[in-house]
Design a protein that fits this description.
Elements (H helix, E strand, L loop, with lengths): L11 E5 L6 H9 L3 E6 L13 E3 L5 E3 H6 L4 E4 L5 H10 L5 E4 L5 H4 L4 H7 L4 E6 L21 H7 L2 H4 L15 H24 L3 E6 H8 L4 H5 L11 E7 L2 E7 L2 H10 L14 H6 L1 H13 L4 H10 L3 E4 L3 H6 L1 H5 L3 E4 L9 E4 L26 H9 L3 H9 L23
Parallel strand pairs: 1-2, 1-6, 2-5, 6-7, 7-8
Antiparallel strand pairs: 3-4, 9-10, 10-11, 12-13
Length: about 425
């Protein structure tokens, strides 16, 4: 889908954003039809452009993997928000948009004069969404998180959610697990939910509001294994009363999960041991775990080892047992599911490499819009390439004023000539 097409057509988003915790969410809004205008530094762009691995744009500037993942379906406007005139330009743009979104460190927008209060004074109906490590807005009692002023990346809030310690093996330190930046993506998704709810409320009341998402809150809501299960008496050293393990097939590994008694009965039949169902040692889920290595694995693994992953998962699935192949990256890319569901977008590279960059597709499928694939030739925006276009259309700025602002470094060059590539040292959030 493109802006102007889809259920969010007509919704306009002005996003001062960086890295992933918000950009993933705004690109999803864009792919559902919203118009997303991204505000970033006029010559350097946002910090996600400096992430590695990377390609380069037609002018040799870095375009990092983080930026590539999160910025289809957007336009880029280069404005220096630290410059007074840049701040004024941003505020002048605000009344033209439904949503203002930001994910700087808590308090940054306040210091720039772009707080919710300042923005809503210009546009009382605005939906103002903030994503930060520990929250911007106070609670009902007026209290802020004690960590409010600390910077955060996904790994920081993942650690503070308790999930790393929960999974730590005895005698070893915790192992950060960058599984697609869970802390970032979960925060972005909750931001999207908040924006949609606030827009619906505005439709009903005419009143805008602030949507405040803390990355740590997002992780706490998702890592029930830590708090919810602890409250029910489960401890990290406690055995989980289920079968959840990898078993070797002839061409790799298959993950099998059995959590219900009827699934265990089907497993027993499948491996030729229906008598297990009546045996006391398998009468409880705890018994499954106790006898996994000595009895169940040899019986199941012996059969799987002579089958390919595809054959094994097909047989297990036919028996009503949840199982999946452990795929490598090339296998994920080549998988028929990935193709049928339009879950990869090919973006042509601009640095002489023949193979395209692969960007995740839109996972939201709607029945009245059956093909969510991005149009051929879709790409991320180059730094500030839409600056003049947006400022002309929204604010009526003439060529002389645009040139003056560009010469002063307030906006991106009107002629599109780039500035210096972003230094990796610039990746730290402000």
């Amino acid at each position: 889908m493109t802006a102007g097409v889809g259920p969010l057509a007509g919704v306009r988003v002005l996003a001062a954003e960086q890295m992933q915790a918000l950009p993933y969410g705004t690109q999803l809004l864009g792919r559902l039809g919203a118009e997303v205008v991204k505000v970033e530094h006029p010559t350097q762009g946002e910090s996600g452009r400096g992430a590695h691995p990377a390609m380069v744009d037609p002018w040799g500037r870095t375009v990092g993997a983080t930026f590539l993942r999160n910025n289809l379906a957007k336009r880029s406007v280069g404005i220096d928000l630290k410059a007074p005139e840049g701040r004024d330009l941003f505020l002048d743009l605000v009344p033209h948009f439904d949503v203002v979104a930001e994910n700087f460190k808590a308090g940054t927008m306040d210091r720039l004069g772009l707080s919710y209060e300042a923005v809503s004074a210009r546009h009382p109906g605005v939906i103002y969404v903030s994503v930060s490590g520990f929250g911007n807005a106070p609670n009902a009692a007026g209290d802020h998180s004690p960590y409010r002023d600390q910077p955060a990346y996904a790994s920081v809030v993942e650690a503070m959610s308790g999930v790393y310690e929960w999974a730590r093996r005895p005698g070893e330190p915790p192992r950060p697990n960058p599984v697609g930046a869970l802390g970032d993506i979960s925060s972005a998704l909750f931001a999207v939910i908040g924006v949609l709810a606030a827009l619906r409320e505005r439709d009903r009341t005419g009143v805008g509001q602030q949507v405040d998402v803390a990355m740590l809150d997002a992780l706490l809501s998702m890592t029930d294994v830590v708090t919810n299960m602890w409250s029910l008496g489960v401890r990290p050293e406690s055995p989980m009363h289920l079968i959840l393990d990898a078993f070797a097939a002839s061409d790799g590994y298959v993950v099998v999960q059995i959590v219900r008694e009827h699934q265990f009965e089907r497993l027993a039949d499948l491996v030729g041991h229906p008598e297990w169902v009546g045996e006391e040692r398998f009468a409880t889920r705890a018994g499954w775990v106790v006898h996994l290595e000595g009895t169940i694995r040899p019986a199941l693994g012996g059969g799987l080892s002579t089958r390919t992953r595809a054959q094994a998962t097909a047989e297990l699935g036919a028996a009503g047992i949840a199982a999946g192949s452990c795929y490598t990256a090339p296998e994920v890319i080549a998988d028929d599911h990935t193709s049928v569901r339009h879950m990869l977008v090919e973006m042509e590279r601009t640095d002489g490499v023949d193979e395209p960059v692969l960007i995740p597709g839109n996972p939201v499928k709607l029945s009245d819009l059956p093909d969510p694939a991005d149009p051929p030739g879709a790409r991320v925006p180059w730094v500030g390439e839409h600056t003049a276009e947006v400022l002309r259309a929204e604010l009526g700025l003439g060529e002389q004023e645009l040139a003056r602002l560009a010469d002063a470094g307030v906006i991106s060059p009107v002629d599109g000539v780039p500035g210096r590539p972003r230094d990796p040292a610039d990746e730290v959030a402000p």
